């Protein structure tokens, strides 16, 4: 009897000790505003709306946790759900945890994780792209960039004295068939006898110093049933239905901090090779931006972008300016204005905030938003 009580007591102490070494955090972002977009359709009409997807940052809630396993080893996880604050509906095709859902191990050698995760495209550009996933940011010209994530993915990242190396491998980048990223179609993968169908891999090298950083990354998606490639320039997406088809992005970028100003710039080249008609298309996307804190509570930033799609004879230039005032550590209000110039054959939209604002070919768009963001 005494032995049984001792076992129960020891088990209770062990559980309490284990609990004390683990943690789970609930977090989130609520971000929306009121947006105006000119020339929102081919007839030249404008629209005033609450954007469906993003303001400064996409709205989300999530849970992250970790447990110290001893000997420098730690278990960790993230479950993150995106949603539309305007309507309360889920993002990422209605997935419960569409932004991130992974579990992994971390140690002195780096971190290894498994699940739905960001690819190296996302991590490589995160510091040089000043505006990030802003409504008038790089996502207006290539919606994949701020949504670069895949299902069925193994990710490794390690940081060694300022140098970060990373790689990802997906066995099938869209396992639920809801669309892995905007305009890419669905590509469930894992077809018996064809290990390449819907496969995706990426790799990154990144260096961050005291005053500057540089990064490069490569991201390759293989084709498969229902997969497609969209260049977001008004030309209809074309199929990449063969596992031999490729949709690849190579990037190089950097940033520097000088006299309180952060400057960032980069290039992203995309190459799609497909057996579908018109399926060999190349594009180049350039960006340069700056950020300055006028006071600790007031930030000004802006970015300029230029995209060229050779085979579509489509070009566009976009300039975006933003002002953010921090009411507290968790709450901020902002104003953002941008203008996009389309070439004669291009139909890019200035707003990445929910679509539905495609102008006539060659017509530019003005976008403006006043919004509020709260984190918890």
TrEMBL record:
Region forming the signal peptide: 1-20
Mode of membrane association: Multi-pass membrane protein
Annotated Pfam families: Porin_4
Chief place of localization: membrane
SUPFAM superfamilies the record matches: Porins
Localisation: Cell outer membrane
Keywords per UniProt: Cell outer membrane, Ion transport, Membrane, Porin, Signal, Transmembrane, Transmembrane beta strand, Transport
Domain Porin, chain residue ranges per copy: 9-343
Quaternary state and interactors: Homotrimer.
Record's protein name: Porin
Species whose genome carries this gene: Paraburkholderia caledonica
């Amino acid at each position: 009897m005494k032995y049984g009580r001792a076992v129960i007591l020891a088990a209770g102490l062990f559980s309490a000790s284990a609990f004390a070494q683990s943690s789970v955090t609930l977090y989130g972002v609520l971000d929306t505003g009121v947006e105006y977009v000119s020339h929102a359709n081919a007839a030249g009409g404008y629209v005033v709306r609450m954007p469906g997807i993003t303001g400064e940052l996409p709205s989300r809630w999530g849970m992250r946790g970790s447990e110290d396993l001893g000997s420098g080893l730690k278990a960790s996880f993230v479950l993150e759900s995106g949603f539309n604050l305007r309507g309360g509906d889920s993002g990422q095709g209605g997935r419960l945890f569409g932004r991130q859902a992974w579990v992994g191990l971390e140690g002195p050698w780096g971190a290894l994780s498994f699940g739905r995760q960001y690819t190296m495209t996302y991590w490589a550009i995160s510091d040089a792209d000043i505006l990030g996933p802003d409504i008038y940011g790089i996502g207006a010209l290539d919606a994949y960039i701020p949504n670069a994530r895949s299902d069925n993915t193994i990710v490794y990242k390690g940081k060694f004295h300022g140098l970060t190396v990373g790689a990802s491998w997906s066995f099938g980048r869209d396992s639920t068939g809801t669309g892995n990223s905007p305009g890419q179609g669905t590509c469930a993968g894992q077809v018996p006898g064809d290990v390449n169908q819907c496969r995706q891999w990426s790799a990154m090298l990144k260096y961050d110093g005291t005053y500057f950083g540089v990064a490069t990354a490569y991201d390759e998606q293989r084709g498969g049933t229902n997969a497609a490639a969209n260049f977001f320039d008004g030309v209809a997406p074309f199929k990449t239905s063969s596992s031999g088809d490729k949709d690849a992005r190579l990037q190089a970028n950097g940033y520097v901090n000088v006299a309180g100003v952060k400057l960032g710039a980069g290039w992203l080249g995309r190459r799609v090779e497909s057996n579908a008609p018109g399926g060999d298309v190349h594009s180049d996307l350039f960006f340069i931006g700056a950020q300055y804190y006028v006071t600790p509570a007031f930030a000004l930033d802006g970015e300029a972008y230029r995209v060229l799609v050779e085979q579509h004879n489509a070009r566009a230039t976009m300039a975006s300016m933003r002002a953010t005032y921090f009411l507290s550590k968790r709450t901020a209000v902002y104003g953002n204005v941008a203008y996009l110039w389309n070439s004669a054959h291009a139909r890019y939209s200035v707003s990445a905030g929910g679509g539905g604002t495609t102008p006539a070919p060659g017509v530019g768009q003005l976008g403006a938003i006043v919004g509020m963001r709260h984190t918890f």
